[in-house]
Amino acid sequence: MPDIPVQTGLPDGDRSSHIRDAVADLRSTARWTIVAAGAVGALLLGGAPLTAIGEIDNIRDAILAYAGLIIALAGVSWAIWQTSEALLPRIATFAQLADPDMASLRAALALEPTAFYGPFGTSPGQLQDAAVMYETAAANLAAARAREPDEARVRVLDQAIDDARANAELARRLENNVLELIHAWKVRSAVRRARLHTFAATIVVAFGAVLYLTATS
Length: 217
Known about the structure:
mainly alpha
């Protein structure tokens, strides 16, 4: 299963693109799992298994065969249901960083905070505060410029406004990058849970198949 890239040397745009590609790969894995489980379900519901049951004369064996099919189909449905959870739309928030499945991401962020938060602190809260601070500063400077009659002073204010807006934009971009990482980690966690459920569902399907084959042999 593809892992989530957290390369710290990439420009913000490239890093964001890599994260989105990894999420797409994870979702593709989930889709193929659903397709495979659906194929097994279609095979179980095909004409041959049902025809074989119809040829059984013993009621006990017929009941066992039907029970085997039902158990196998339940396993297929279980796998599809759990895997489809990974495909559901998700909203990422900074509060989710405290979730247990975010431990590895928290460790990566703590290891190199500057790579993720830039010069704006070492936590999402500090990053958000910096963005708000620079946005407020830019707005206040713009208001002061509108009232400033001195041309030389206006040029100084223009430069200060540009700097504040650039810092605010950088902070928001870094904020979005961290949120994309949180989203990607959540999708990865969902796919990993789906793999465990699919493995368990495979055992259920195998048990149902054995029960069916035993009854129809």
